[in-house]
Amino acid sequence: MRTKMRIMGFRGTVIKPLNEEAAAELGAELLGEATIFIVGGGCLVLEYWRHQAQQRHKEEEQRAAWNALRDEVGHLALALEALQAQGALEELRTELQEVRAQLCNPGGSASQAVPASKK
């Protein structure tokens, strides 16, 4: 009874002793409520831990996907640079062929003397 009164906020009040039957009933009630409270609190804690683990797993998956995308963009940038360099190389080859053709045909007109890339 003293424990129940302390929980309810009554301090320092004189409490008359209970008979054995009322004390057993009150103790069983208090024990049942404590059990329910502990089980409910345990469920809340376990659910919180489970949610945190799922959140960490989700963040790790997002981080891995982000890193994979970043790597793919890097590979694509390198491929683009290689293609651009190859395109420039093709342009130089075309200009070289035009210059060779002009050297082989010295009597060509002035309009043919200008490389195709500069037209």
From TrEMBL:
- Per the record's keyword annotation, is Coiled coil included, yes or no? yes
- Matching InterPro entries, A to Z? OPA3-like (IPR010754)
Q: Which UniProt keywords apply?
A: Coiled coil
Q: Name one Pfam family in it.
A: OPA3
Function, in words: May play some role in mitochondrial processes.
| Family the UniProt entry places it in | Belongs to the OPA3 family.
Kindly provide the name given to this protein in its UniProt entry.
Optic atrophy 3 protein
Q: Which organism is it from?
A: Saguinus oedipus
Gene name, Swiss-Prot/TrEMBL: OPA3_1
